[in-house]
Here is the input.
Amino acid sequence: MRLCSMRQLRNLLSSGLELAGALCYHEGRIQTCIRETERGETMALYAIGDLHLHFQTPLKARAQRKERVWKNHEEKFRRNCAEFLRDEDTLVLVGDHSWGHRLEECEDDLRYISDLPGQKVLLRGNHDMFWDASKTEQLNGLYAGTLFFLQNNFAAYQDYALVGTKGYTFEGPFYLNARGRIIGWDEKAEVHAGKLVERELGRLRSSFEAARAAGYRKYIMFLHYPPTSILEEESGFTAIAEEFGAEQVIYAHCHGESRFHDSIQGEKNGILYNLVSGDYRKWVPLKLLD
Here is the structure.
């Protein structure tokens, strides 16, 4: 791991080297945490989310105890990573890493992730109680050289900036008629959700702006929550993606077959949207870039 200025980072990018990852702690300072590789050396970028590991905590989630897709999912995912990923690749894990509430309850889960092939970039999910957004810098210091925690900063892959935040969407409660169609919803809950959305939009913009200040003009955007709710066709998150010209938007959170189509999938307004929840992907990470 090394520290360099933005000018030094730009020089590295134009000198015949590629950076698999970087993070921005403070204005004017970039900390590269993923090794440099010679141009022409093959590497790839992958993503998946919702591992919901529980090596140190009791498993309470009914779906993980009952549904076949979750049976031995840790070992399935480990095997798939061993088959598809190499040490020079980068894997973005799009939230909900662990059921542990405190960091000491997540150490085995994070060790499992660290031991996977490739360089690992982690995004916050709604169940990642061990990760206080304000303490991201501390986590990056603690896991320097093994894991990179993406929050209010960015990572770099080749000439792309990997930007992101947890995100948020309104998820009800909804009121249904006899045919199962939505006829209303809890308006107080909707107002509260709107405040959380605004907070996350600010964090996402900070990530984009840090990357742009470092000279990046190509972006892949990551969210844990889907970019739109089931009531929306567009949102503040899709608007920011379009404003900065993100090429892809990758998200998770929608697991269980009934939720696989809660949000955008495929190309919309020139941006490719993909759901990468682990059970949706059958524990095979999605390749985003070569």
User: Anything to note?
Assistant: The CA atoms of residues 232 and 263 lie 8 Å apart. Helices lie at 6-13, 62-66, 73-84, 107-114, 136-142, 187-213, 236-244. Residues 1-8, 13-18, 20-40 have pLDDT under 50 and may be disordered.
